[in-house]
Amino acid sequence: MRLEAILTRVPVIPVLTIDDPNDAVPLGWALAAGGLTVLEVTLRTDAALDCIAAMAAAIDGVVIGAGTVLTGAMRSTAAAAGASFAVSPGLIDDEAAESGIPLLPGVATASEVMRGLAAGFTCFKLFPAEAAGGMRILQAFAAPFPQAKFCPTGGVDAANAGRYLTLANVLCVGGSWVAPGDAIRTRDWTRITLLARAAAKLRPTASVNPA
After folding, report:
1. 125 in active site
2. Cα–Cα dist 81/71, whole Å
3. Could you tell me the residue ranges of all domains in the chain?
4. Cα–Cα 20 to 30 A to 23, which of 42, 44, 60, 73?
């Protein structure tokens, strides 16, 4: 799948940190039941690759991505585990858009957006979104970079996600609030489904041009 097609499937991509591989599939089903069918499993735990493999094999209709991808080698490893896309907190040297599974690189400045565009990317993760300037920096990016689209992540939550989604250059947002760590630890899948269902309804009725 092309990256933009993945990012426009849902308004919110859950950012998941999973310690126990046994939680991966039930968590994925809980989020899918709430309407969130694109998931990012961060490569921050020893279990992450096993979780990606289990979810990709067991959950039909859900696109599984790998987050916190820091190198080209990690991108390849994530693909081998079954990830359909990769997400990085920044730009990765010598990694191009058309190299392996789609990559969503992180940017926080105009210079980084320019570097990414030169490497063939048009979709970016704004990270850390709130610290980098939030909606105001996305509004500032709109005129000089009309071809660039964004997934803001970092400080995005249920209270501000809907506002980000009104911007024409925002395809979706990423956040961990739909799968809180305490809910995963206690295996409260019902709570996670309810949070996912609310997040899935955040898509705005109309976009506005952030000029």
Report:
1. yes
2. 16
3. 3-200
4. 73
- Which member of 4, 40, 95, 149 is catalytic? 40
4 catalytic, yes or no? no
Catalytic residue of the set 4, 95, 98, 125: 125
What fold does the segment set 3-200 form as a domain? TIM Barrel (3.20.20)
Helix (H) or strand (E) holding 123: strand 123-126
Residue bearing tokens 């499993």: 41
Q: Is 78 exposed, middle or buried (0-12, 13-18, 19+ CB in 10 A)?
A: buried
Q: Is the pTM of this model over 0.70?
A: yes
CB atoms within 10 A of CB 4: 12
